[in-house]
Specification:
This protein has a nine-stranded mixed sheet with strand order 16-15-14-13-7-12-11-8-17. 29% of the residues lie in helices and 24% in strands. The protein is an alpha/beta fold and 376 residues long. This is Putative dehydrogenase.
Length: 376
C-alpha cells in the first residue's frame, strides 16, 4: 500500500459520524464512498462529511479504488457484509462483534487468509493511550505478577436514551455482546487466551418500553439476558470476574481493576480511548484499626488521543509494513468465542471450555504512534 489508502464505509448509522470525522483527520487514509440500505441516509452522510461518492453496499464493493471496507452495519449483518467485501478482494475493518456465530466468523477468517487479506475487528479502544499506558505499567511490573481482574458495566439500559433500542435487546446483543467486547478485548489484550468461563444471567423484564424519540411509548421484546456475571480463567493462570447489566438504577461504567502480587491498578474505561491509570502498593504491615487511606500513585498517560478508526489506521499501516496489526480478526474471534461460551454457561449452569485461542500476545502500540503523521 502507498497512501492514502482508499476506504469505503458500509452502514452509516449513529456510529458512522465518529468514524468519518476521525478518518478524515488521518493522512494515511481517504474515505472515497459511503453506502447504506437507505440511499438518502448515505447521501446525507456523504454530504455532511465531504465524502465524494455515496450509494448502496454494492456500490462500495464495486468501487475500484476502495482497498479497505469499513463495516458499520448492525451485528446480524456483520458476517454477510464482511464476507462480501472479502469476496470483492477488499480488506475489512468491522465493528464489534466480529459476527454472531462461530462457524460464520471462522469461515470469514479462513476466506480472508486464503486471499491474503486482512480482517480487523473493533473495539479499537485498546489501542488508545489510556489502555496502552496501563498495559505498559503491567508489563513493567508496577503491580508485580497479575493475579486477577474485576470489571463492571452497569446501567439502567439503552431503552431510556436510544430512539430505536430494540436491536440492543435482541439475539446477538444485550450487555454481553454489545458491551462485553470492550471489557473482554481488554482482558485478553492483557492476559492472553481464555481457557474457560462460567456465567449467570437473567432478565429484568420480558418487554421494554422506548422512552425517547418518535417511537416513544412503543414496547419491544427482550430476547437475551440483561444482567450477567461472568467468571473467566486464562491460560496463563489469571482469573477475572465481570458484571454486565442493563438493569441497574446505579450507573457505574468502566470499572477495570487489575490486582497483582505487589499492588493493584485501576485502568481507564475500555469503552474510551483515554483515562486515569493509577496504582496502590500492597502494605507489608498494618496496626489494628489504623487502615486509613491508601496512597494512589498516578501514572501519566502517554500517546495521542483520537477515537474510533484508530484500529483501522493501525491495520493499513501494518499491511504496508508487513507486520501484525493489533485488533486482528483472530482477537475478535476469540473474544466472540468467550462471549458465546458465557451465554452457553448461562443456559447450562456449567463451566464451558473455550475452544479458540490467540496465536501470539496482542501487540503493544508504540508511544510515538502518531495518527496524524503521513507515513504511506
Amino acid at each position: 500500500m502507498s497512501g492514502p489508502v482508499g476506504i469505503g464505509v458500509i452502514g452509516v448509522g449513529v456510529i458512522s459520524d465518529t468514524y468519518l470525522e476521525n478518518l478524515a483527520s488521518f493522512p494515511d487514509v481517504e474515505v472515497l464512498i459511503v453506502g447504506d440500505l437507505l440511499l438518502d441516509r448515505a447521501k446525507s452522510q456523504a454530504e455532511k462529511h465531504g465524502v465524494p461518492a455515496w450509494g448502496s453496499a454494492e456500490d462500495v464493493l464495486a468501487h475500484p479504488d476502495v482497498q479497505v471496507v469499513v463495516n458499520l452495519t448492525i451485528p446480524a449483518a456483520h458476517i454477510e457484509v464482511s464476507a462480501a467485501a472479502i469476496a470483492a478482494g477488499k480488506h475489512v475493518w468491522t465493528e464489534k462483534p466480529l459476527g454472531l456465530d462461530r462457524d460464520g466468523a471462522a469461515q470469514l477468517l479462513r476466506d480472508a487468509s486464503a486471499k491474503g487479506l486482512r480482517v480487523g475487528s473493533a473495539p479499537d479502544t485498546v489501542l488508545g493511550p489510556g489502555f496502552q499506558t496501563a498495559k505498559r505499567a503491567v508489563a513493567q511490573g508496577v503491580i508485580g505478577e497479575p493475579m486477577f481482574a474485576s470489571t463492571t458495566f452497569q446501567t439502567i439500559g439503552p431503552d431510556v436514551w436510544h430512539p430505536s433500542p430494540a436491536f440492543l435487546f435482541a439475539e446477538g446483543a444485550g450487555p454481553l455482546l454489545d458491551m462485553g467486547p470492550y471489557y473482554f478485548t481488554g482482558l485478553v489484550s492483557l492476559f492472553g487466551s481464555v481457557e474457560r468461563v462460567a456465567a449467570l444471567g437473567r432478565k429484568k423484564f420480558e418487554e421494554r418500553v422506548i422512552a425517547t424519540g418518535p417511537n416513544a411509548g412503543t414496547t419491544f421484546p427482550v430476547e437475551v439476558p440483561t444482567s450477567l456475571q461472568v467468571l473467566t480463567s486464562f491460560a496463563a493462570g489469571q482469573q477475572a470476574s465481570s458484571l454486565l447489566s442493563f438493569d441497574s438504577a446505579l450507573e457505574r461504567h468502566g470499572v477495570f481493576e487489575i490486582h497483582g502480587t505487589e499492588g493493584s491498578l485501576v485502568i481507564p474505561d475500555p469503552n474510551q480511548f483515554e483515562g486515569r491509570t493509577a496504582s496502590v502498593q500492597a502494605r507489608t504491615s498494618i496496626s489494628d484499626g489504623a487502615w486509613g487511606e491508601q496512597e494512589w500513585i498516578e501514572i501519566e498517560q502517554e500517546g495521542v488521543v483520537v477515537g474510533r478508526g484508530l484500529g483501522l489506521l493501525d491495520m493499513v499501516r501494518a499491511i504496508a509494513e508487513d507486520r501484525p496489526h493489533v485488533a486482528t480478526g483472530e482477537l475478535g474471534f476469540h473474544v466472540l468465542d468467550v462471549l458465546l461460551s458465557a451465554r452457553e454457561s448461562v443456559e447450562s449452569g456449567q463451566f464451558v471450555d473455550v475452544s479458540s485461542s490467540i496465536s501470539a500476545p496482542v501487540p503493544a502500540v508504540p508511544v510515538d504512534f502518531d495518527p496524524f503523521a503521513k507515513t504511506l
